[in-house]
């Protein structure tokens, strides 16, 4: 080996080590529900802080490379739900609560602007009353919005609307806040826009088929089944190039992340944690990594997506439907 090739080899080894450090490791110790900014490798997530009864839910902005917090948002307002970045990476859609109503709010993750409420169903909340140990009355709210998903050019936000015993998928216009119902339930949740904005995939639950993944075509508002098997399918997430869908399934005995390949309509297992469930997959903007939450272990983890390795050997196809 000559002196000219040695520095190049050292740089290649350093690059490889840096890349390996991002593969299948925990980048956030406490947090869940990650959402990646479409413009930068910055992740937003939720974290539970404090001790009972003074528990508080906070939203954080985290630099993936530096592994440090850049800011927080939504103090005192946030509710347990997924969150979604705007296409320009400047705002975050999340569920906030005010006046006993849970709605979709727009937050400035950098804390420079006040949050804006986007949905308001203008109905009296449906309540169940409960009595605490100190004899005081409280309420359980059975109405509200949850799990927002921003459209790729930013004109709409999709969300699920929980109306007493029924859940349906809606969209709200960013221009005039006009709301439109897209599905009829009975339990439709976890909407996700396709990268080209042509459709929304979501989790549907029925007594006959259990939990499966459906899609609504926005051009004509028609609904089609997409991923269905004898097992549970949920939490779908499109890859940035539209070639794959990451989703949760319990085919392996626990909730794991699986990948649906759009070109060949086959599913492949992505995570193989034994006795540990994996949730809420989200893709980095370049499609090279998937972030997710590990139940029990906790925190947000990152793992490289290598489709060529994933499909060797291919997994037996369990899905019953395909419209691509």
Commentary on this structure:
- The strands form 7 sheets. Strands 1-26-25-24 form a 4-stranded antiparallel beta sheet, with no helix packed on it. Strands 2-3-4-5 form a 4-stranded antiparallel beta sheet, with no helix packed on it.
- The chain is globular, with a radius of gyration of 21 Å.
- The protein has helices at 5-20, 307-310; strands at 25-28, 32-36, 42-49, 56-63, 68-73, 84-85, 92-98, 101-107, 116-117, 127-131, 137-141, 143-150, 156-163, 166-173, 179-181, 187-193, 199-206, 210-217, 222-227, 233-238, 244-249, 256-261, 266-269, 278-283, 289-294, 300-304.
- Helix content is 6%, strand content 48%.
- It contains 2 helices and 26 strands.
- Residues 1-22 and 123-133 have low confidence and may be disordered.
- The N and C termini lie far apart (52 Å).
- The protein has a domain at 97-106 and 113-310: TolB, C-terminal domain (Neuraminidase), CATH 2.120.10.
- A hairpin with a 6-residue loop joins strand 6 (84-85) and strand 7.
- The chain has 324 residues and is mainly β.
């Amino acid at each position: 080996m000559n002196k000219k090739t040695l520095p190049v080899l050292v740089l290649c080894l350093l690059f490889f080590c840096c890349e390996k450090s991002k593969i299948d490791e925990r980048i956030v110790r406490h947090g869940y529900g990650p959402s990646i900014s479409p413009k930068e490798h910055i992740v937003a997530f939720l974290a539970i802080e404090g001790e009972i009864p003074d528990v508080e839910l906070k939203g954080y902005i985290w630099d993936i490379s530096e592994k440090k917090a850049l800011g927080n948002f939504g103090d005192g307002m946030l509710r347990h739900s997924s969150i979604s970045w705007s296409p320009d990476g400047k705002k975050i859609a999340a569920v906030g609560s005010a006046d006993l109503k849970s709605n979709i709010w727009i937050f400035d993750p950098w804390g420079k602007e006040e949050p804006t409420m986007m949905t308001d169903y203008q109905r009296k909340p449906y309540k169940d009353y409960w009595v605490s140990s100190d004899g005081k009355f409280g309420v359980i709210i059975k109405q509200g919005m949850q799990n927002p998903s921003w459209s790729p050019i930013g004109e709409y936000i999709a969300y699920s609307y929980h109306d007493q015993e029924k859940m349906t998928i809606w969209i709200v216009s960013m221009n005039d806040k006009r709301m439109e119902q897209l599905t009829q339930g009975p339990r439709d949740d976890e909407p996700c826009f396709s990268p080209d904005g042509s459709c929304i995939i979501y989790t549907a639950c029925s007594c006959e088929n259990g939990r499966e993944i459906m899609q609504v075509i926005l051009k004509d508002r028609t609904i089609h089944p997409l991923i269905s098997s004898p097992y549970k399918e949920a939490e779908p997430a499109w890859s940035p190039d539209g070639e794959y869908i990451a989703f949760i399934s319990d085919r392996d005995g626990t909730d794991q992340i699986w990948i649906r390949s759009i070109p060949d309509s086959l599913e492949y297992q992505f995570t193989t944690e034994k006795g540990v469930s994996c949730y809420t997959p989200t893709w980095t903007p370049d499609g090279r990594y998937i972030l997710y939450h590990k139940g029990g272990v906790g925190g947000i983890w990152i793992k490289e997506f290598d489709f060529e390795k994933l499909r060797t050997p291919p997994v037996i196809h369990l899905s019953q439907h395909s419209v691509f």
